[in-house]
Each structure stands twice: as structure tokens, then as C-alpha cells.
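Posted in: Structural Biology > Protein-Ligand Complexes

Title: Requesting predicted complex, adenosine-5'-monophosphate-propyl ester in pocket

I'd be grateful if someone could produce the C-alpha cells for the following input. Sequence and ligand are given below.
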Amino acid sequence: MSKLGTTEVLLNEKKLYKPSAKILKNAKVKQWKAVQAKAKKDPLKFWDDSAKELEWYAPWKQTFDDSNAPFFKWFVGGKCNIAHNCLDRWIGTPVENKTAIIWESDAGNKRKMTYKELNRAVCKFANGLKFLKVKKGDRVAIYLQNIPETAIAMLACAKIGAVHSVVYAGFSANALRERIDDQRAKILITSDVGHRRGKVIAMKELCDKAISGSQSIQHVIVVRQDGGHVPMKINRDIFYDALTDTQPSTCPTEVMDSEDPLFILYTSGTTAKPKGVVHVHGYMVGVHKTFQWVMDIRGDETYWCTADPGWITGHSYIVYAPFMSGITTVMFEGVPDFPKPDRIWKMIEKYEVNILYTAPTLVRALMSYGEKWPDKYKLKSLRLLGSVGEPINPEAWRWYYKHVGKGKCQIMDTWWQTETGMFMITPLPSMPLKAGSATLPFPGIEAAVVDENGKKVPVGKGGFLVIKTPWPSMLRTLFNNPERYVDTYWNKIPGYYLTGDMAHVDKDGYFWIQGRSDDVIKIAGHRIGNAEIESAIVSHKSVAEAGVIGKPHPIKGQCAKAFVILNRGVNPNDKLVNEIKRTIRSKLGPIAVVDEIEFVEKLPKTRSGKIMRRVLKAQELGEDLGDTSGLAD
Ligand code: PRX
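-- Reply #1 --
Done. Output follows.
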């Protein structure tokens, strides 16, 4: 594996990849230049036409409203429901008999559901939620693994106008509690147990801990994954099958305003408190359009996104986009290298997957086992590959292209965020690609790289990545915190949406994403705030202060290192290191792994007492310390 850091490799990459014959067979994708030009000329018309590709109960009166910027509105007055576009519209058409979900469990068991069966399950569950008195606008927390019931629960909420909030099942009871309390969720949906790498995870037990003393949760719905041998609290807990079995299999879909909330998804920011990103039903327009064009959706194909429904990728592109396109989506409970490093390649052959959408960290992890694993498989069904979550270093890009795509599949390196809801900077399949570049903004999107005053930086020079004009799938606010929404995204460089990423643009206008500019780390593609980890560390009784930085890591992209000051009289030792690691895990969950803990006497601080993580990082990586005039000591 390359010794170079991601940035250097990215900056040195020159080679242009041309589209393969497999891609050019489809005339539609050849039109990308014309589509780009048209959308650039009149972006509102582009989004207006895109919205018309979906079904609405009543048309909108105005495509876009910026009278209360940055609280933008789209398709004002339009009535719709994303669940209608995922399910209702297919019922009574040939799509109803198509497979909607192919699911494989960690142990290798298989389940399949047609659109008709999925619709029936969603209706029954929607009726079950109504039976539990869930109403339009109520929040429903979902703490489930990658199983069909996760998609069913999300769609059932959307159908009745409830707001779902999926919490990734790798989060701790503490993190789950924080998210449930913030949104005051009425219902929690979970399972008795979960499975990962052959191990059993006590999901219900964790949920019981998370909601002990909760003021808002009225009921817990428990999916039986393993017989349901878990304690159930009378009048509060109910099994999913007991709730749904007797419910009718049809349920009217609630007519929603295009601007009504669809879900809240918490994500990490620069403070210890996660942000509740709010998306609305009208988000469907951008999600549908981007999926259709970027993944070049052709109808009768099978698509597999290896993300988890607990992240935005799972929301937009495991659940909503594939169902709005009426295609078959693969859901997988397990991990790609268990029981052997060829699990993912085996599944591609078994289910004849045509489009694979995954993350660079997974490509690098599978790369580390050697190409002998994918080389054993022909992977003939594959037509298109995707990447998301962090910059893909050209070495991983080329491995993915050669050993997975066998040199015939274009790689769609899609740059986007929880907040953007949809792909923003991404190739279209017939574009020439450069290994490691997310290429160009999607039609209708205006992106730029600017300095701190909002001035465009010269070609090749790094700067802040901003989006210059609003788009339909954008977040509308942060739940319960509109001020933070304005401050985080719109006030720092006025007039532009600040992404928090650094990038540069090359002479062809291609964007090269370099990583986060703010205090957010991407560990194996998972977004986690430095402040969140620090706050978990200082909750340990022996710790006085902590500073956390992200460091390059050959497989995970980045890993975390903590500098810790212990309380007076406490001596550093290995036992303490393990205890602190355990504290982090119990506060945040297994996603927040800190690889290194170094005990120090002092931390670099500003005069106002803020830890200068930038200085810690430069010191650690042996880089120039930059401007240190703000240092207190
Ligand atoms: O830093 C960028 C990185 O992931 C961040 C968004 O993280 P999250 O909200 O968790 O959403 C991830 C899935 C959409 C971005 O600010 N990122 C995402 N995709 C890419 C990327 N960095 C480089 N290239 C990408 N393709």
C-alpha cells in the first residue's frame, strides 16, 4: 500500500479514464454535457422538470422561495408523500411483482420481498403505529440493524406523516438516549437482538438502558430476530408481529406538504452535541433525480449499497431512491469480510448485482486481503461502481476499477453530506473520470472553492468548499436549533452554504476533495466530532482535560488520537488507557474508536482557554505549526 498520505496522491494524479463500452451502450448517459448546460442556464426549470418525474397530489405554486433565507422552501404549496412515490405508485402496475428487497442475514439466510409484499408490510405497520396513537408530526426513533423492518418502519412513518429518526445501531445507549431526548420521540423501534460477525448483540437490553427514565417514549416496538427472549415491560413494550398481525393490509397515505418534515438524522458537528438535521418530503426530488442519472437506472436491475440505513447514504440511497425507481435493492445485515474476505464478491455473483455503491474504507480493507479474493470471481453482472463517505485515494480507486469492475465499470465518486441529502459533486456515467476526483457538480448545483472572504481561489489552490445556490434536497434546519443552522452553514461565508470540507479545482474544473476543515473526523467513513470524543474522555474520573485529533490511517482513512491530562496525583498506566477506551465506547459506541492515547502535562491553548487542535495535529504529524500567535503559552 502507498506510503503517501491521501492528499499528496490526489494532487499528483493526472490520468484521465474514458468511459467503457459497457456504459456507452446507453444513449441517455451520453447527453451529460447538454444536460449540464441546460441546467446551468436555468436551474429552477431543471428542478421543476425533475419534480414532474414524480407523482404529486397537488402541484406546487412556486418552485423556490428565498424570501426567508436561509430557511429556503421548494415546491411551495405542492402536496405529496415520498412513501406514495416509493410504493403506492407501483401498486397495480407490473412493478408490484418485482423484488423490492433481497436481504441476507449475517449468518447467510435470505429473504425476498416484492413491492406488493413490501407495501402490505408497510401498511400493516403504519396501521400499528396509528393504533399506538402516533400522529402526523410525532417523532419515531428507530434503532435497528440493516434488516427489512428498518425500511418498513421508515416508510410506514413517512406514510402516516410521522417523522422518523434512525439511530445507527453502533451507537451506545448513552448516544441513543441523547438523540431520543433531543427530539422527544414517542416511539422506539428496535429488535430483541442483532447479529454481526457471528456475534449476538443485545439490542433490546441497550434500548432499555437508553430509555430508563425517558419522559417521552410511550412504547417500544420489538422486532423478533431471535425468538424474542427478552424482558418486555407491560403496557410499554410490544412485539412487532403482535402489533401488525391483526392490522389491515391497506392504509391511506397522508397528504403532506412538500415542506413537511420527513426525518431527523443526527450528525456530528464541531461541538459535543450532535445536530438534528431535518429533511422534508420534497427532498424526494433531488434524491430521485440524482439516483436516476448518476447510477444510470435502467429498470430491471439489482443495486447494492453497502451502507447502513442509520446513515444518510442508507436513507437516500438504500431506501428512498431505489424504491422511487422501482428497482431491486440488496440489504445486508453482516459485514463484507465475514466469514471470509470474499463475502461481498460471493453475494454480487449470487444476486447478480449490477450496481455496487460502497465506501473507500471498505475498498481499502478488502484490498488489504489481496486481489486473489475478487480475482476468483468474474463479477460479470457489475455495470457501475460507486464510492462515498470520504476521499478515495487513487490507489484504492484503481484497485476497485481493475479488480472489482474488471476495467469495465465507471466509478461514481459521489461527494455529498447528511445535510445535502443527495449527491452534489459527482460524475455522470459517461464523463471522463480521474482517479480520486469527485469530478463536477451535479446539474443544477453550483459549487466553488473559496477563501475565508468568499473569494474564489485560483485553479489548483486549496480552499473552502461552498455551495453557491440552494437545492431541493437540502436540510431545512437543525431540529430545535434554527440559530445553529444559520451559524454553522450560512454565516461563516455569507451567502454561501459552507460544507466544512477543503477542496481544490483543477484546470478542467474537476473538484478534488481533501477532507474536513473543521473539527470533525471521518473514521472509516463515520463522521464523529473531536469534541464528542473529548467530552467522553473527560467524563472519566481520572481525566482533567483532553484534546483529540484525526491522523491519516491506511485503511480507515483517518483514526483518532487523544492527548490526555490526568488529574493531579494520578499516574498514567496501561490499565488507565484501557479504562478510558472503555469509557469512550460506553458513551459513544464502537464507532468512536481512539487508536492512541498519549498522556501529557499540558495542551496548547488559546488565551481564552480553547484547545488548539490544529497545533496538536501539526506537532503530531511533524508539520509546520503555522500561526501560533494565538497560543497562550
Ligand atoms: O468530508 C466529506 C465526506 O463526508 C462528509 C459528510 O459526511 P456524512 O454527513 O456522514 O455523509 C457521508 C455520506 C454522504 C463530507 O463533508 N465525504 C462524503 N463523500 C465524499 C467525502 N469526501 C470525499 N469524497 C467523497 N466522495
